[in-house]
Amino acid sequence: MKVSTSTSIYEYVRWGSTMFYSLEDSIRACAAAGYEVLDMAFNSYSRKGRALAQPDWEDWLKRHKDIACELGLEWYQGHAHFYDWSTAGPAEREFHEEMVRRSIIGAGIMGVQWLVIHPGTIYDETWYAYRKSLQANLEAYRRYGELAAKHNVGIAIENMMEAPNRRYCSSVEELMELHDELNDPIFGICWDTGHAHMAEVDQPSALRRVGSRLKALHINDNRGTDDDHLAPYFGSIAWEPILEVLREISYSGCFTFEIHNFLHGLPHELHDACLRFTYELGTHMVNKIKG
Length: 291
Description:
- 44% of the residues lie in helices and 13% in strands.
- The mean pLDDT is 97.
- By secondary structure, the protein is an alpha/beta fold.
- It has a single domain, classed as Divalent-metal-dependent TIM barrel enzymes (TIM Barrel), CATH 3.20.20.
- α1 packs across α10 and α8 crosses α10.
- An eight-stranded parallel β-sheet has the order 7-6-5-4-3-2-1-8.
């Protein structure tokens, strides 16, 4: 098992609203910190006006794949564009679905093995509509899976959180039901420890139930109220039981951090040193899993 991190870890300085670092900066900084495997944050570059939404987006991705190859880096997983199904009108939905499509094709270009895609939630006049959410997600993921198969990419469905409203797949039962109903090896599950903590899920028990379906991780911490995306041990998650279960279920993917907020508030001068610390922290945790 190798330590990995999302490229989103190296994007902003002092909570700025404009990206301070480029994707190339992030790739090179992560390599210098010791990382050998990265998670491509397509979602960081899929807003209107950013690189994935430009006409030359495929060439842009190919250039960065070449940079990573020169540095000896691999891409184990990626994070697709995501959006709120309940608020997007027809025009917005067309744009968002195109960004998801580009995320899938881009994952194939970069050699990503597992692309994480958020499930969406359907609300009706009463509030949360479970069956409508299930059917809508089955339709969406079957469409995504058909495209992903053409580009040799697996799709990992992520567990969600119950904030600010109830969201589909915040429970492990819904997550596994969706995966099992899809009934195709192109689909797996991504477990986000921060989402589960906010939903007050018993994570060791949930991970045992997910078992071999688990193909990707979003390792991050929080204090149980906000999706803080902190480094482990800087929030209130109990990590040792989670690490023990990852060993118990023989998880064979990468140990991937999604901890961008741990660095985003720092001044530029501290980013590289703190990035190296995250690699050392991940190595310590992986060694715990290995026993």
